[in-house]
Input
Amino acid sequence: MKQNKLKREKSPYLRSYADSPVNFYPWSYEAFEKALKEDKPIFLSIGYSSCHFCHVMKEESFYDEEVAKILNENFISILIDREERPDIDNFYMNLSFYLTNKGGWPLTIIMTPDKKPFFISTYIPKTQKFGLRGIIDILEEIIKLWKEKKEEIKTYADNIIKNFERQEKLLPIEIEIKKEEFNCIFDRLFLYYEENFDEINGGFGYSPKFPTPQNNYFLLRYYKVKGEKRALLMVEETLKNLRKGGIFDQIGFGFFRYSVDKEWKIPHFEKMLYDQALLILSYLETYQVTKNDFYLKTALEIFEFLEREMKHKDGAYFTSIDADSEGIEGKYYLWNYEELEKNLDKEEFDFIKKYFEINKEGNFENKIIFHSKKLIEEENQKTWKNIRKKLLKIREKRIRPFTDYKILTDWNSLLMISLLKLYKVTGEEKFLNSALNIYNFIKNNLIKNKKIFHENIEGETNLEGFLDDYSFFIWALIELYETIFDNKILEDIVYYTDYVIEKFLNKENYIFNFTETEKNDLPFENQSIFESSYPSGNSVMLSNLIKLYFITGEEKYYNFSNKALKTLFNFLKEAPYAFSFLLSNIFYFNENTQLVILGNVKDAIELNLEINKTFEPFTLLILKQKEDEIYKKIDEKTTYFLCKNFSCDLKTLDKNLILNKIIGV
Output
């Protein structure tokens, strides 16, 4: 069978199109040169392996001879894996929202050979349906326009990019930001969550509903600072309903990407690594606040799923699991009433009917999604565990959805952070070891000559890292330093932070570019500032600068973060919900506690595990193993210093006194 240019690609998503009759190219110099030479527009499709409608469009159009003939004769077709090239995806997705106020995948773009779009859409059927025009009609109209009004189209595309760049350009603002102004922004974001909170089902807004864990991240810190019980209530109700819902895989564990309804009942069945990582963090932090074992148990269940289904043999974790199997969305996860009745005894069947929506009509297209009617009491957990294991064995005999085996630095860094948190909360070494396995995989496979790379596929690493890779890895290193207190880790934190400042920072507005400045190959440099399903690279990097300032005392990190916050200040005021993670870390300026331990690693680790029995997000532990002008031991013994904004008001040998001051023990 003849294959196209994607046959040499490593991305599983791109390779799955290698035998498409469409003569697809990867994003490459060759493709754009060919478009320029032949004076043809570019047809660009952006998707990813676990995307349901990407598969639908693939089968309907990209394996259709009629569509392929039109594309091959009149366009240069390029396919992008959005997880492999988040820079390209982010740029054109933002442009899609700018032009159409909507976006999604697959993202379909038709543009000039110099990468300037004049048509943007998402999923397009082969022929008209769902009220959408068919791709054949659209392509034929564009072919006609390209022949008859090419220069007008190019001018139109030029103007789109010029106007888009004008809107995206972030201008520095020279203002002095007062503490009270940030307090107002914190309160405004809390009120936004209150107004949009779903009192019945938890979460925020209507359908579709995404978990968006950074909402919880902010609300827990708001609760910590302000004592606002409603903030904690919103987090708890959201996490309880998420765990009860069909969005959680009740049989095999792990969360699906989002729910198409407001009850969290009907999921879009793909599972993403970043969701698992950040939701572990949400459940663990809520456990630290409430001491409710339900939250810790859920975090451990997510970990169990990851170990079973998403772990690479060398310790890192895969990117995602597909929504589809055998060409049907969710087929692997759905059940028939008769199937359940046949495979369970009467007592077991009655049990699941009591706790889950189990009926002959089903709750999703005549099939059954396990969606809890109520939480299972502790005394019945053993019964449910046995039933669940029996159903899991049955399910594992089915044809599994495809697992995208890319290993991404940014998403693995997020999981590393959560595994370190699991260790600090439970004290169990296996979680520390799992985190260190990720760290060692990244160090050995995704870092070359001290440069971070974005992905590893089947042992190959070629794509240089983006801002997310650097910023998320630095965050993970900060968490690792505060776990094992290795000064070599701190040296790496400083090195990579300085590297990002040198290579990614826009010196005019002090916001970081998505790619290294000299390596951008888009119409203009992309600065992604808004958070979506997970925090943006800029939010994480600015948070890193804030923490590193308090760890090292280096004024330059404070100055860079302060200048960036000035640029972003109006955005923070007008749309705080787009910066919930960043705002969570701005609390550090007023709430920071620096606990300096002048002693050895063992003392620091023991104290850290004690502190992590409660929720103390603004306490930074700093180990010093040698005395200096400021920090001197008492009687040559391990000495503790409790400081705020580098001013220490307590110096003691008494560890219990320190614990009492910090966590009230």
In short: The two ends are 70 Å apart (CA to CA). The mean pLDDT is 95. The first helix runs from residue 12 to 15.
